[in-house]
Write a structure and sequence with these properties.
The chain has one domain (22-121). Helix content is 18%, strand content 24%. It has helices spanning 2-19, 59-63; strands at 25-29, 32-36, 44-46, 68-69, 79-83, 89-93, 96-97, 119-121. Strands 4, 5, 6 and 7 form a four-stranded antiparallel β-sheet that branches. Strands 1-2 form a two-stranded antiparallel ribbon. A hairpin with a 5-residue loop joins strand 5 and strand 6 (89-93). The chain is globular. The protein starts with a helix and ends in a 5-residue tail after the last strand.
């Protein structure tokens, strides 16, 4: 019984923290400190997006996959969640939608930075 209570208590403490964990990490790269997804892949912003609104759909989203959020994810700190044109949810940092790049192959190696002058590696505030 005591063991059961301890497990339930531990879950009660851990689950809320996991539900509100930041969707990105900060890693060092050749471009300085950058935001990455949970796998360590660079995250990017798109100049044609507006606050919490993605302009990258269809073929664009195939090359630059959105950093997906679930319906239960909640905004926290610098991060917000918004609904994309296709109805899926996406994370944004300071209102800028976040994406990965399919051609990135190494952790914290932002090869898409500066692509066509409109894609930029996401960097932490401050």
């Amino acid at each position: 019984m005591i063991r059961h209570v301890a497990v339930v208590t531990a879950l009660a403490i851990a689950l809320p923290a996991m539900a509100f964990a930041d969707p990105a990490m900060v890693m060092s790269s050749a471009k300085g400190k950058i935001l990455t997804d949970a796998q360590g892949m660079a995250l990017y912003t798109f100049s044609k997006d507006s606050k919490d609104k993605s302009a990258c759909t269809g073929g664009c989203a195939a090359l630059w996959p959105p950093l997906k959020a679930s319906a239960s994810d909640k905004a926290t700190g610098h991060y917000s969640v918004f609904k994309r044109p296709d109805g899926t949810m996406q994370w944004a940092y300071e209102g800028k939608p976040l994406y990965t790049f399919v051609q990135d192959k190494k952790k914290a190696d932002p090869t898409g930075d500066g692509f066509r002058g409109v894609w930029h590696v996401a960097k932490p505030a401050g």
